[in-house]
Design goal:
heterodimer, A: alpha+beta, two-stranded antiparallel sheet, 5 helices, 23% helix, globular, B: 640 residues, alpha+beta, Aldehyde Ferredoxin Oxidoreductase,  A, domain 1, Aldehyde Ferredoxin Oxidoreductase Protein, subunit A, domain 2, Aldehyde Ferredoxin Oxidoreductase Protein, subunit A, domain 3, 3 domains, 6-stranded mixed sheet
Chain lengths: 185, 640
């Protein structure tokens, strides 16, 4: 991932994990690796990114959308969840979290669950809390491991601006067809 | 052969759960025991576990469809890790199709869920007094009567029903359809809708035990012995698994082979009358046409980086099969396509879907249908017999025949419902002379998608396969396709034998690990494959020791066959390859030569360290592989 993609713009860092359903094959590698880099074992039930397969032909994965006024944060009776102002990620204070699962119910995307052993909320933090042992020495810092291993490069980290821009480009191509003709007289 | 150095066991083994579950269906008792470290080290997993357990515990000469048969389910140390293609499992029993060592391998989510439930092997004995399915829900193992629920249902509905009951879309279900229930010798096991443990009739063994399904789910994650090192190499392998090494499986998929094998005259057409087909020449029946017009999505099994599962869909406007989906690979394009002379894609999808749902092996099913088409063409079976016409190139009637064959209905079902070998026997009993000649099988298992008229190395490779006609025991077709030896000639018998063995030993390890053969090319060499095993398990196998174990596993399953009455004559291709030649293409006018074939076969036996006359492993060979326990027990029990 390029350094520029982690740059805060306008003081905000509203970035999230995006999965392209055209590329996603539903292989669950992201789930296995998510649990592995946090816990050292391959247990997709403890993942923070969740594969969804509807009929074999539709595959996608979902992770935290980093809502600005996040329902999970609002709903937590223990005030264990907090938006990190720098990254936008929802951080879980494991000392406060009591496993009540209100956040799981509050999340509109179903991307929160509780760790099967500790019963603490699991929310994607873009691998900020991954184990140091698994940091790629060539990268030298934490980065989302699901992106690093996704065999089909279906997962990416994007900010709102980028997504809008890409969607607009696609829309324009659909509306105008071959736009190169506009460059001719 | 030198004795490989002993591989020292670490204090603690990772990867393997080492849990063996014994199920006595007759009494309903379920027991749990521990697989020793030595057992895991020596028999690796999957195929190795199956071979050892069946050798030790199966009484020779028993009826494969009787309660004395033993159904073994096994995985290795890898499922649910991110090693590419690691979510695979194997099933093993005495085969009702061959009467010899039966084995089939499947993938999907079963291996991964089972591993998370903490299971390494399941050994099923006896017969349940009523139909049941088995649940493995973490440490909870139990049998559930199902006569009033899913018994009688297809595989697709069975899977959905069990998922709904558990309210868990991730529940992994392996089940049998009506074909397995009615003990069709061709019956398969289906899981994750599109994945099958198809070959050698393992579904019939489940059916004979009144075992409809096994469902798995688990919440326990395995650790590996060297996490950081394993993670590094796994990431590398995932990348390579999306590079050129696996392109043929990912892009067009294995149907790309239609064109390439057609060019070589190796694409079985019209029940092996020809090895080339004008529909392929024209480009209408090719991997390109299939992908361009029909494939809507490529889907992956759990933790697979390749995603080879090509899903075809018939448009909603189609008159006969609107919205039908089916999972297609080259074997189905052959079995129901080229080999029956059917170039109508929706018909092929329909036949495959029937096989997967109602539960027979789509290779055996298609090849048996191809036999029927040829017999119809020759007048050995008629419209009066079937109730409809069945020439080569049939469409609607091919689907009709297929359904009847699977369900055991009508003439098609009664005669062809147990595969080619039985169909031949039954028809000849009825006075249809020489009908068995048109059944393309070895040891009772129907041929895979290679026409061996001009493939003298693979003629040996496919004949010596322990489970009957199969391209995946040694992949020796590559020797012919790549021109390693004269594919029409019979020279270099010993060298060819050695080349086949080099493949066969590592293939035995791949089937024991269990991983997918599609990923063989992602490893730098066998040493790297051994390294991955060590990083996960902590057991320091090496290239040498792992290949030695591969040879031991292969030899043990071969000894199982000998004990069941195997003789040299069983390692023989169908007579048709010796008597009838293609009329066109690269192998035009060529037939296999008996003398030459036997010479090559002896070369293989010699390379294996087996008696070159009888094909039985010598005591010296058995000792060198640590198979001393086999010596003196190779008296055939009969019952093959």
């Amino acid at each position: 991932m390029a350094r520029s993609s982690l740059k805060k713009r306008g003081g905000k860092m509203h970035q999230f994990i995006i999965i392209d359903p055209d590329l996603c094959t539903g292989c669950e590698t992201c789930e296995s690796v998510c649990s592995f880099v946090h816990d050292g074992e391959f247990n997709p039930i403890n993942t923070r990114i969740h594969r969804v397969r509807i009929e074999p032909v539709f595959n996608i994965a979902l992770a935290c959308q980093k809502c600005e006024d996040a329902p999970c944060v609002r709903s937590c009776p223990e005030k264990a969840l907090e938006n990190d102002p720098d990254t936008g990620s929802v951080m879980v204070d494991n000392d406060k979290c009591n496993g009540c699962a209100y956040c799981v119910r509050a999340c509109n995307f179903g991307v929160i669950n509780l760790h099967i052993d500790s019963q603490k909320a699991l929310i994607c933090d873009l691998c900020e809390s991954m184990k140091e042992d698994f940091i790629d020495p060539e990268v030298g810092r934490t980065e989302p491991q699901c992106i690093a291993v996704c065999p089909k490069e279906a997962i990416s980290l994007k900010n709102v601006e980028q997504i809008g821009e890409e969607t607009r480009m696609e829309a324009v191509k659909r509306l105008f067809g071959d736009v190169s003709k506009f460059g001719t007289k | 052969m030198s004795t490989a150095k002993k591989v020292t066991l670490p204090d603690e083994i990772k990867g393997y759960s080492q849990v063996r579950v014994d199920v006595d269906l007759t009494s309903g008792k379920i027991n749990k025991s521990t697989l020793s470290g030595e057992f895991c080290r020596d028999w690796i997993g999957g195929y190795g576990f199956g071979a050892k357990i069946l050798w030790d515990e199966l009484k020779p000469g028993i009826d494969p469809l009787g309660p004395e048969n033993i159904f073994v389910w096994a995985i290795g140390p890898f499922p649910t890790t991110i090693l590419p293609t690691s979510s695979k499992y194997g099933v093993f029993a005495k085969s009702p199709l061959t009467g010899m060592f039966g084995m089939a391998i499947s993938s999907g989510s079963v291996g991964a869920q089972a591993r998370r439930a903490g299971i390494n092997a399941i050994v099923v004995k006896g017969k349940a007094p009523e139909p049941v399915y088995m649940i493995i829900d973490d440490d909870d193992y139990y049998l559930e009567p199902c006569e009033k629920t899913v018994w009688g249902k297809g595989n697709f509905e069975t899977e959905e029903t069990l998922k709904d009951e558990f309210q868990d879309q991730r529940l992994a279900v392996m089940s049998i359809g009506k074909a397995g229930e009615r003990l069709s010798k061709m019956a398969c096991i289906t899981n994750d809708r599109n994945r099958q443990a198809g070959r050698t009739g393992m579904g019939a063994v489940m059916g004979s035990k009144n075992l409809k399904a096994i469902a798995f789910r688990g919440t326990k994650g395995p650790k590996v012995a060297y996490p950081a090192e394993f993670y590094k190499i796994a990431k590398k392998l995932i990348k390579i698994a999306n590079g050129p090494a696996t392109a043929k499986y990912r892009d067009l998929g294995t149907p790309a082979g239609l064109t390439s094998y057609n060019k070589l005259g190796m694409m079985p057409t019209m029940n092996y009358r020809e090895g080339t087909w004008e529909e392929i020449d024209k480009g209408t029946f090719s991997g390109d046409a299939l992908n361009e017009n029909w494939i809507v999505k490529k889907v992956a099994c759990s933790q697979c980086s390749i995603a080879c599962d090509h899903i075809a869909k018939v448009p909603k406007t189609h008159s006969e099969y609107p919205n039908l989906t089916a999972s297609i690979d080259v074997e189905m394009c052959y079995s129901f396509g080229t080999n029956t002379g059917c170039a109508d894609w929706p018909t092929i999808f329909k036949c495959v879907s029937l096989c997967d749902d109602l539960g027979i092996d789509a290779i055996s099913g298609g090849v048996t249908a191809s036999m029927a088409c040829e017999l119809y063409d020759l007048g050995l079976i008629t419209k009066k017999d079937l109730g409809y016409e069945l020439p080569f190139g049939s469409t609607t009637n091919l689907a009709r025949f297929t359904e009847e064959m699977i369900l055991g209905k009508g003439f098609a079902g009664e005669i062809f419902g147990d595969g080619c070998k039985q169909a031949g026997i039954r028809l000849e009993k009825m006075g249809r002379k020489n009908a068995g000649f048109y059944g393309m099988h070895i040891k009772g298992l129907e041929m895979p998608a290679f026409d061996i008229h001009g493939m003298t190395s693979f003629a040996v490779g496919v004949s010596v396969s322990v489970r009957g006609a199969c391209h995946l025991r040694n992949g020796a077709y590559g020797l012919d396709a790549k021109g390693k030896f004269d594919r029409f000639g019979y020279d270099k018998a010993l060298e060819r034998g050695k080349a086949i063995i080099a493949l066969e030993d590592i293939y035995a390890i791949i089937d024991s690990y269990v991983i997918c053969k599609f990923t063989r090319g992602i490893y730098e060499n066998d040493a790297e494959m051994a390294k991955v095993y060590e990083l996960v398990t902590g057991i320091p196998h090496t290239e040498e020791s792992i290949n030695k174990r591969g040879a031991a596993i292969l030899n043990l399953s071969k000894c199982f066959n000998i004990r069941e009455g195997w003789t040299r004559a069983d390692d023989h291709p169908p007579e048709k390859f010796f008597k009838e030649a293609h009329t066109k293409g690269p192998a035009k006018g060529v037939v296999l030569q008996e003398e030459g074939f036997q010479k090559l076969l002896s070369g293989y036996y010699e390379a294996r360290g087996w008696d070159t006359k009888t094909g039985i492993p010598t005591d010296e060979t058995l000792k060198s592989l640590g198979l001393d326990f086999v010596i003196g027990k190779l008296k055939p029990a009969g019952g093959k």
